[in-house]
Write a structure and sequence with these properties.
- About 5% of the residues lie in helices and about 60% in strands.
- It is mainly β and about 230 residues long.
- The protein has a domain of about 160 residues: Porin.
- The protein is elongated.
């Protein structure tokens, strides 16, 4: 509600800055039964754009539209007695909308390097969930066979995700364009897997590690460039 209020009180003369952004994501399931703060990352990326509105000399309201990859490692599991899958991971292909408050230091607004603090929330929708893996087949008396494969596992996971975001950023000018380097943490609040899937043959070993409710979090390193003002 506070973020909505920020948008409502923006004066008509407020400047709107718009530009693209992209980054690298390091994703993991969380709340491990074995290691409370364990981070088992899979790589992904994000790509999209942002718009930010000047509210005061220290506060900007910011909205983004992103293609955002999240995911997690799936621990080795057996399909049949002669075949198991190794090196599996699930990748969630999401459209995501973060809504953020960008806080700065007014006395540094004209400086070449400006630190920023971003806080807010997000909503995302999974378009496609894919599990990729290596099949390993071992039949008695024959050589081991390995080949890559993948599954559409969307039916096992919730499409909607939401949570909170915190980030530290530094903005500087490159060729007279504001460029922002950002370190962001995203904390998904709801479970990724649907109830009842924890005992599925491909998830059983993973939920034994992380718990029945698989929840995600992401560390990302992002770069954004302000190109236009309105």
């Amino acid at each position: 509600m506070a973020l909505l209020a920020i948008v409502v009180i923006i004066p008509a003369s407020a400047q709107i800055a718009v530009g693209p952004k992209a980054g690298v994501n390091f994703n993991s399931f969380r709340k491990s039964k074995s290691f409370r703060n364990y981070f088992d990352p899979t790589a992904g990326f994000n790509l999209g754009g942002f718009a930010k509105y000047t509210v005061t000399d220290f506060l900007k309201a910011r909205a983004e539209i992103l293609y955002f990859q999240q995911g997690g490692n799936i621990y080795d599991y057996r399909v049949i007695s002669e075949m198991y899958r190794s090196g599996a991971k699930t990748t969630f292909h999401n459209f995501e909308v973060p809504i953020l408050a960008e806080l700065g230091i007014p006395s540094l607004n004209e400086d070449p390097l400006q630190p920023k603090l971003l806080i807010g929330g997000f909503y995302s929708y999974t378009v496609y969930a894919r599990e990729s893996f290596t099949n390993i087949v071992k039949i008695s008396g024959r050589d081991k066979i390995e080949y890559d494969g993948f599954l559409n596992v969307q039916d096992q996971y919730n499409r909607a995700q939401y949570g909170i975001i915190g980030a530290l950023a530094a903005e500087l000018k490159v060729f007279n364009q504001p460029v922002s380097l950002e370190f962001r943490y995203q904390y998904n609040m709801n479970r990724a897997n649907k109830p009842g899937t924890q005992n599925s043959y491909n998830l059983r070993n993973t939920t034994e590690k992380w718990g029945n409710e698989l929840k995600l979090h992401t560390l990302s390193i992002n770069v954004g460039v302000t190109l236009f003002y309105f």
